[in-house]
Design goal:
The chain is built from 8 helices and 10 strands. It has about 260 residues and is of the alpha+beta class. The protein has a single domain, classed as q2cbj1_9rhob like domain (Jelly Rolls, Sandwich). Strands 1-7-4-9-2-10 form a 6-stranded antiparallel sheet. It is globular, with a radius of gyration of 17 Å. The two termini are about 20 Å apart. The N terminus is likely disordered. Bound molecules: 2-oxoglutaric acid (AKG) and fe (ii) ion (FE2). Fe (ii) ion binds next to loops. InterPro entries: Oxoglu/Fe-dep_dioxygenase_dom, Phytyl_CoA_dOase-like.
Length: about 260
C-alpha cells in the first residue's frame, strides 16, 4: 500500500462536530483505481445471490456477504490498509482499531435510493461508536447518489428517523474521485438518492471499531446484526472482546503488536 499523501483536508476536523467529513486524496488515485477491477469481479461474485430489491439498492441490507478470508489479496490489502486504519482511529479518537466488516455499495444506473438509517442500529458491539470509511472506486457525480447526512445527528443517539431532515441540517457530499474518502460515525443518520446516471456507482464502505470493544447479543436486533454476529464475530461469546482473524487489528498507535503484525489477527 502506497504511503498517504500529506494533503489533509480542513473538513477532517468537521467529523467531531458534524459526524461526517470528506477527505480528499487520502489514498493515491492510482492505488484505488488498481483495486477497482478486482473489487468489481469480487462484488459480482458476492452479489450473485442478491434479490431484485438488493440489486437496485446495490448492497444487501440484511446480511454481510463480504469477508476478508475469501477476498483476493489486493482487496484485503486495501481494506486492511494502516493508512485507512489510522484515519479511522483518529476519527474515533482511539489508539487502535479493528475492521468489523466491509460492504460493496454498487448502486447500478437507475438504482434506488438508500433510506435514512444509523449504522449503529445493527452493530453487535459495546463501543460508543464505529466509523465507516466510504471509498468510491470510480468518480461519483452529483447524479450518482452521493451520501447525504443529517449533520450533528450523531450527538443524539438512536433517533426517530421520520422527518429527520427537518430537525438537522442536511449535507450532501460533493462529487468524489477515487482516492477521496467520506467518513461517517455509526450514529450519524445518512441516506443516498437514486443513481440517476447510466453508470454503476462503485463504492466500498469499511467499518472500524475501537480495539477492546466487546461483543453483545443480537437479540431483538435487525437481521444485519445477527449476520455480523454469525460471520465477522463468529464464535465470540457476548461479553468477550471482539478480536480474531475476521476482525483484524489494522492500526495501533505506536506500532502493531508483533503477533498482530505477523498474523493479521
Ligand atoms: O452507499 C450508500 O448508498 C449507503 C452507504 C451506507 O449506508 C454506509 O456506508 O453506511
Ligand atoms: Fe449506512
Amino acid at each position: 500500500m502506497a504511503a498517504v499523501r500529506p494533503r489533509p483536508d480542513p473538513q477532517q476536523s468537521d467529523f467531531a462536530a458534524q459526524g461526517h467529513c470528506l477527505i480528499r486524496a487520502a489514498l493515491p488515485a492510482e492505488t484505488v483505481e488498481a483495486a477497482a477491477g478486482p473489487f468489481r469481479a469480487y462484488v459480482r461474485d458476492r452479489h450473485a445471490g442478491l434479490n431484485g430489491f438488493e440489486r437496485s439498492l446495490g448492497a444487501s441490507a440484511t446480511r454481510t456477504v463480504f469477508d476478508l478470508a475469501t477476498a483476493p489479496s489486493s482487496i484485503r490489502e486495501l481494506v486492511c490498509s494502516p493508512v485507512l486504519g489510522r484515519i479511522a482511529a483518529d476519527a474515533l479518537g482511539v489508539a487502535a482499531v479493528r475492521v468489523l466488516h466491509f460492504n460493496g455499495f454498487y448502486k447500478p444506473g437507475g438504482g434506488m435510493a438508500t433510506p435514512w438509517h444509523q449504522d449503529m442500529g445493527y452493530i453487535p458491539l459495546t463501543c460508543d461508536a464505529v466509523v465507516t470509511l466510504w471509498l468510491p472506486l470510480v468518480p461519483v457525480t452529483a447524479e450518482m447518489g452521493p451520501l447525504i447526512f443529517a449533520s450533528g445527528s450523531h450527538h443524539d443517539g438512536a433517533l426517530d428517523l421520520a422527518g429527520i431532515d427537518q430537525r438537522y441540517p442536511v449535507s450532501v457530499n460533493a462529487p468524489m474521485q477515487p482516492g477521496d474518502l467520506s467518513l461517517h460515525s455509526g450514529w450519524t443518520a445518512h441516506r443516498s438518492e437514486p443513481n440517476r446516471s447510466g453508470r454503476t456507482r462503485e463504492a466500498v464502505a469499511i467499518s472500524y471499531f475501537p480495539d477492546g470493544a466487546r461483543v453483545r447479543s443480537a437479540h431483538g436486533g435487525p437481521p444485519m446484526m445477527a449476520s455480523l454476529l454469525a460471520e465477522a464475530l463468529a464464535g465470540i461469546e457476548p461479553g468477550s472482546p471482539a478480536r480474531g482473524d475476521t476482525v483484524p487489528l489494522v492500526y495501533a498507535h505506536g506500532g502493531m503488536p508483533p503477533f498482530e503484525r505477523d498474523h493479521g489477527s
